[in-house]
Design a protein that fits this description.
single chain; about 270 residues; mainly beta; Porin; eight-stranded antiparallel β-barrel; 1 helix
Length: about 270
């Protein structure tokens, strides 16, 4: 995952440089030049002389509506992942083996590709493509068994200093971005919401122990192959908060985990 994130950051930087060049050219085309005058009257009564002082200033034209498309590195979200067991934050006995450390159970993701249409300065619709990880830090020393009919675990014979159970999805969020006017500091409020679909890339269990060192086991582990849900973000400038909830179950073809869903919340960077 680290290599993928580094590659994504590199692509995002290249996309940002390209976007900056386009924006610079656009500003050059759309910038208007006007002359600002200061008129001073000298004299008294009807005998006055007017003297004008002026300088040329550049005023950027208001952004126009239209399509946008390109590489990006935005919507970097870092938050907590929470499991909801049929609406409860407490796991049922059937799911107790997934008991986790909340402070170390996280949700990480970002967008790499975005296409959008800006209707006006206050509303934009966009479809993005990116990646999303749910990283569950398990409390128990267990091994999740791959390639079995249902989600199954066995007790481990060693003590793990780290036992992380995670999923990775390709996500497609559709964003409705409502923006306020731009304030004096050049920032504005964003109210963003919409649906999101995800396609499973892989699942993984990463473990660290004194006996075996670091090991990783990749498998789908019955994570649902297609997820769908909704999200909401509130931001000022480039910093905000987000919440994301998936309507379908985290696992498929595993009746004991029916009703186990995923809820994420945290900070989001980059708008």
């Amino acid at each position: 995952m680290k290599r993928l994130i580094l590659a994504a950051i590199f692509c995002g930087m290249m996309g940002s440089l390209y976007a900056e060049q386009i924006n610079t050219d656009t500003i050059k085309r759309d910038t208007t030049i006007r002359k600002k005058h200061v008129r001073v009257r000298i004299g008294a009564g009807g005998d006055t002389t007017s003297v004008s002082f002026g300088k040329k200033i550049r005023a950027a034209a208001k952004p126009k509506s239209g399509f946008s498309f390109g590489l990006t590195f935005t919507n970097l979200h870092l938050g907590f992942a929470t499991l909801l067991d049929n609406g409860s934050f407490t796991l049922s006995p059937a799911n107790d083996f997934l008991d986790y450390r909340q402070i170390k159970t996280s949700n990480v993701g970002f967008d790499l590709l975005k296409i959008g249409y800006r209707f006006n300065d206050n509303f934009k619709l966009s479809l993005a493509g990116g990646f999303d990880w749910t990283l569950i830090r398990l409390k128990k020393n267990i091994n999740i068994v791959p390639d079995v009919p249902t989600l199954t675990y066995v007790p481990a014979t060693v003590n793990y200093s780290k036992n992380r159970f995670s999923s990775n999805y390709l996500v497609l969020p559709l964003s409705f971005d409502i923006r306020t006017r731009e304030y004096k500091d050049g920032k504005r409020f964003h109210f963003v919401f919409g649906p999101e679909a995800g396609f499973l890339i892989d699942g993984m269990q990463k473990q660290i122990s004194d006996e075996y060192g670091k090991k990783k086991n990749f498998n789908d582990f019955h994570f649902t192959r297609f997820e769908y849900g909704g999200f909401a973000r509130i931001a000022y400038g480039d910093l905000g908060i987000y919440a994301k909830y998936y309507f379908n179950d985290m696992f498929e073809n595993s009746p004991a985990q029916k009703g186990l869903k995923n809820f994420n919340f945290g900070l989001v960077l980059g708008f």
